[in-house]
Write a structure and sequence with these properties.
This protein is α/β, with parallel strands linked by helices. The chain folds into two domains: 162 residues, Rossmann fold; 239 residues, Dihydrodipicolinate Reductase, domain 2, CATH 3.30.360. Helix content is 32%, strand content 24%. It contains 15 helices and 18 strands. Helix 5 packs parallel to helix 6, helix 6 packs antiparallel against helix 15 and helix 10 crosses helix 15. It starts with a helix and ends in a 6-residue tail after the last strand. This is Oxidoreductase C-terminal domain-containing protein. Pfam families: Oxidoreduct_C (PF16490).
Length: 458
């Protein structure tokens, strides 16, 4: 698990001041945003709400108007809404030399990235070299080469190095907060059962290429089907679930790659997308050249969007699986579940009878005190008032007041608040740095070592 020697050479150059520009941006000054090639709508979500630490003037750099069209439309929507409108003033630049203009100009001190995942590490590199902090959508890297470059940035000990922070929204989901609190209440849960004869932690998620959002068909860019740019399933969606494992089981504790993390197995398999499916999803009648490597002799696309990995984290066996189907034929839509096997209980996050993702607790032994103990444990969540439980055939469901749920956009705002706080402190905590390194080390190693299969192995 030793890092490549060239990583340390790059770090040495940084420390000597010859390989990268010292950061002058994270010294408590107001944030001036720079948007670079914002092809994914997550770039705009960063600006859905006003933030007193961010100037209203924003600089946008992209190769074409089309690349930033969705971003510009969302910003206009935020500015023109009747309730709590924003007042962003976007100054755009379009041209093939957009990278030179973005990073070599003197505008902006925080670069927001959401788009081509393959190019993201180059954009990060340019940001760091020019002394700009980075606030980026996941994943930051999608292969081992990208990981080596990312690791170089985090292995410099310079206090002047720019901040790099990925947007981990799932930490702010109320269900995950409840699960983390209950599992870490050792007196209540008994702690994670590392020796239960199965994976103590399991994450499973199913997604769909063709879907509706707010009652309208979601039009995806062709790049979404190019796993060389988007990243395969093992290196994309899995980043959220790996981060949750670290955050739930080892919150604010630094991860040692050489001691705490072992990859056991990894698998990858494709989803077949027909030409009709592709047209329905993208609105395009022909495949662009970027998808040539995915085309079959029958004229379909083999998209390696699926992956499954098993690993050991600080003695805890973990399994994570991500699968993409073409369309939800049963109309249930995207699905998610998680299982945590503790010594006194089994905690599950899964859909309830109405299809709403909920938290369930199943005691392994109920001596008549479990319900009282569960209520007491929930009372410890002072920031989440109004939690309740109901029992059905030995299973307890946590009732969460609607006001405690945050939208996807609200999660982005929460992560932004955390980034601003870190920026004021002029550095990321060491545990945050180690989380990012351990997360992308695992995803890129899993992809490099994955066995290609024709179907998901149980």
């Amino acid at each position: 698990m030793r890092l490549d020697r060239k990583i340390y050479l790059w770090s040495a150059l940084c420390l000597s001041g010859t390989g990268c520009v010292q950061n002058q941006s994270s010294n408590g000054d107001r944030i001036n945003l720079v948007l670079v090639q914002p092809e994914h709508f997550h770039a705009a979500l960063v600006q859905k709400y006003k933030n007193s630490e961010i100037n209203s003037e924003v600089h946008l750099f992209a190769d074409t108007v089309t690349s930033a069209e969705a971003y510009q439309n969302l910003i206009q929507q935020y500015n023109s809404r009747s309730e709590d409108p924003t007042d962003w003033k976007v100054t755009p630049y379009y041209g093939k030399d957009f990278l030179d203009k973005a990073f070599k100009s003197n505008v902006g001190n925080v670069v927001v990235l959401a788009g081509d995942n393959k190019e993201k590490i180059e954009f990060i590199s340019q940001s760091v070299k020019n002394g700009k902090d980075v606030f980026a959508d996941k994943p930051l890297v999608i292969n081992m080469e990208g990981y080596s470059r990312l690791a170089a940035f985090f292995n410099t000990s310079s206090s002047q190095a720019p901040l790099i922070f990925d947007i981990m929204t799932e930490r702010y989901d109320v269900k995950n907060i409840i699960a983390k609190t209950l599992l870490n209440d050792i007196g209540f849960s008994g702690g994670i059962d590392k020796n239960g004869g199965e994976h103590a932690v399991k994450f499973n998620s199913t997604h769909h290429f063709i879907k509706e959002v707010s009652g309208k068909p979601l039009i995806r860019p062709a790049m979404f089907y190019n796993t060389l740019q988007q990243g395969e399933g093992l290196v994309d969606v899995t980043t959220h679930y790996i981060d949750l494992v670290y955050w739930m089981l080892s919150s604010e504790q630094t991860i040692d790659l050489n001691k705490d993390l072992v990859l056991d197995s990894a698998f990858r398999w494709h989803t077949k997308v027909t030409k009709n499916d592709f047209e329905k999803s993208t609105g395009m009648k022909q495949y662009p050249n970027m998808l040539r490597q995915s085309q079959t002799n029958e004229g379909d696309l083999d998209v390696y969007s699926n992956g499954k990995m098993a690993f050991n984290f600080k003695g805890v066996p973990v399994s994570i699986a991500v699968q993409w189907n073409v369309e939800s034929l049963d109309k249930r839509g995207d699905q998610f579940s998680a299982v945590f096997n503790a010594k006194r209980l089994r905690l599950e996050i899964k859909p309830d009878e109405a299809g709403v993702i909920s938290v369930f607790i199943i005691p392994k032994e109920d001596n008549g005190k479990f319900e009282a103990d569960l209520r007491q444990a929930l009372q410890g969540l002072k920031d989440l008032p109004g939690l309740d439980i109901i029992r059905n055939k030995g299973t307890y469901k946590v009732i969460i007041p609607q006001k405690l749920y945050l939208s996807h956009e609200d999660h982005f705002a929460k992560v932004l608040e955390q980034f601003v706080a870190y920026r004021k402190g002029k550095a990321l905590p060491e545990w945050e740095k180690s989380f990012m390194l351990a997360k992308y080390y695992l995803t890129t190693q899993a992809l490099a070592k994955a066995k290609t299969i024709e179907y998901e192995e149980n």
